[in-house]
Amino acid sequence: MREVSFAEALGEAILEEMSRDSTIFTYGEDIAKQGGIFGAYKPLLGKFPDRVIDTPISEEVIYGTALGAALAGMRPVAEFHFADFLFTGMSAITNQIMKMRYMTGGQAKLHLVLRGPDGITKSGAAQHSESIETIFMHIPGIKVIVPATPYDMKGLFKTALKSDDPVICFEHKLLYETRGLIPDEEYYIPFGLADIKRSGTDVTIVSTSRMLLESLKAAEHLQKEGINSEVIDLRTLVPWDKKTVLNSVQKTHHLVVAHETWKKAGWGAEVTATIQEEAFEYLKSPILRVGSKNVHIPFSPGLQDYVVPGYKNIEAAVRKTVNG
Amino acid sequence: MKYSKNFLLGLYRTMVRIRSFETRAEELSLKGQVLGYVHLYIGQEAIATGVMANLRREDYITSTHRGHGHMIAKGADVNKMMAELFGRVTGYCRGKGGSMHIADLSIGVLGANGEVAGGLPIASGAGMAIKIRKTDQVVVAFFGDGASNRGPFAEALNWCSIFKLPVIFVAENNHFASTWREETTAGKSITDRATGYGIPGVSVDGNDVIAMYETTGEAVARARRGEGPTLIEADTYRIKGHYIGDPEQMYRNKREVEIYWEKEPIKRFESQLIDMKIFTDKDKTNIWSKAQQEMDEAIQVAQQSEWPEIETALEDLFIDDAGYDY
Question: Predicted ipTM?
Fold first, then answer.
């Protein structure tokens, strides 16, 4: 095992797969010369000059070309720079990429990956700071991965680069510099398999991405109060691992779902509804959700902290659901 | 003579096959057998035909909502096309796409498209694939005058210009963007916009199949040599409504349409062929009756085909449809 950053784990995944598969190419704004805005492409600097490409700020074409290149047999990896700018090219994703295989009756194999930074960062303000992954879970047609650790980043991304279905990868901006252990040998992590990051008996906390780290922090604090939390990292939202959550809830009888995106109609609502539909009899208290308040992400630190949830909100929700 | 009789009659045959398909599709749509929104290519046949005569099977095209002509000219199977219009399991998309979403990846058709200008980024991506693989394939992106006012047009032209991609942009200016006319398009022409992106722009009579063939031929040769994209504006006229059932009397008068029936590309090519003295009444009758027969068969196949099993509605979202409740 060795320690790497989240950004390095991503760079390694791309480098390893590009070295093996000459159909993979990657492109976007500020990647070839600069190594990516958060440094993830630094391992690629100077390598594969034909296959690591800087592009104009043309989001609809960045996403649409991924589809065209995939249909023409390549495996494109397009960067979206900031998740907020997925909206500027959204039709190429929702109307084209996500519908193409279905509309053509399964003719198309869409081996393409969209990836980039999302999530709320310090004073990023509303157009550079939000979590929008739920939208891609709501509309059918793309696999959604949301890694929280360097280990998961590398393993999930390598799987994405071998997938024959479109994949979108959301990397939280505040995670790029976090560090963790990865094995020296090669590994892949399948989609749809959650990871129990902390075993516990009293309550289940389901989370992803940055909020997973907040959930683990909350679990440590709660342990001191005698509440033993099980923390599940879904790792992928499409598909999401219902089974692992159901098994856990059958054991703990309490569930809190914690994410950074808006609480209102965030992916936690889907998890919550599914668990009450399928495991109501195991629940001893209502399922609680933790998410951002229903406004855009404000600039000033005090305002942002008030809107965006952290470990304290998770702790409060757990206490409420366990203690009533 | 510059072209062989076989070649010229081949162009004529393709145009007639497109016209026959469209005429029958219209008739069956009005009877309720062809389903959904159908946009006819009648009057624009010379464009698809002239362009495609330059392409190889392995070249790519992106088509539009008005895409039947592109499909037929690129070599699609009319049985599978008609069955798709009927929503049957034997259709190109197993009944999931309909007229606006027909694709045949095996002949390089990367999809018709229900989104105006939706194909331009896709064509650009196929161009990137070709450039990386270093083959001499080309891509043709078809679109209309309406699409030239959308963002993807601007983004794709800039993109293909700076990367010198082998993409030929064919603007079929049929003078209507849905119910609107030229007043939606600023400037003198779509061709003029090429200048801004530093690529050649060419205007051509889109109702003249030979002119279409020759103009596109130069652009295709240029693209195959790695010299980058060309924008071609093909002037034509949308003889039929925006879609079948469109109340066209609301925005144009009958007399105007009658004038354009006189200028339509098949009639026009017939007189060129007669002038060249290579076209007999027998040729004409043969070609039309064969096309009719081909469409009769396609309709029969479609009518006799099964509807898709309803459970197949849950297939084709992902490669591994089974096993997950997405």
Answer: 0.95
pLDDT of residue B302: 98
SS3 content of chain B, % helix, strand, coil (to 5): 50, 10, 40
Does the distance separating the beta carbons of A65 and B125 come in below 8 Å?
yes
Residue B322 has pLDDT above 70, yes or no: no
Look up the CATH architecture of domain B5-304: 3-Layer(aba) Sandwich (3.40)
Contact A105 B111 (CB under 8 A): no
Please indicate, yes or no, whether residues A69 and A92 belong to a single structural domain of this protein: yes
Q: List the domain range (segments joined by +) for residue A69.
A: 2-182
- Contact A28/B at CB under 8 A: no
Q: Rounded to an integer, what distance in angstroms lies between the CA atom of residue A125 and that of residue A121?
A: 8
B122: nearest Cα among A18, A13, A34, A103: A103
What are the pLDDT digits (tens) for A232-272? 999 999 999 999 999 999 999 999 999 999 999 999 999 99
pLDDT tens-digit series, residues B36-73: 999 999 999 999 999 999 999 999 999 999 999 999 99
Q: What is the CATH number of the domain that holds A82?
A: 3.40.50.970
Is A143 in Cβ contact with B318 (below 8 Å)? yes
Half-sphere exposure of A139 (CA within 13 A, CB side): 16
Asked if A168 has any chain B CB less than 8 Å from its own CB, the reply is: no
Of the candidates A25, A67, A108, the beta carbon closest to that of B105 is on A108
- Does residue A153 form part of some domain? yes
Residue A57 shares a structural domain with residue A100: yes
Q: What is the pLDDT of residue B325?
A: 65
Which of A133, A156, A182 is the last residue in one of the domains?
A: A182
Q: Chain A window 86-145: which residues touch B at a Cβ cutoff of 8 Å?
A: 91-92, 95-96, 100-109, 140-141, 143
Do A202 and A170 share a structural domain? no
Q: Are B123 and B110 in contact (CB under 8 A)?
A: yes
**Residue A136: pLDDT above 60?**
yes
User: Residue A207: which of A141, A255, A174 has the closest Cα?
Assistant: A255
The catalytic site residues of A sit at: 128
- A60 vs B152: CB contact, 8 Å cut-off? yes
Same domain, A81 and A224: no
B81 in A contact zone (CB under 8 Å): no
Could you give the angle at which helices B265-275 and B209-224 cross, rounded to 10 degrees? Answer: 100
CB contact (8 A) between residue A65 and residue B159? yes
Cβ–Cβ < 8 Å for B64, B40: no
Tell whether A309 lies on the interface with B, counting CB pairs under 8 A.
no
- A224 with A165, same domain? no
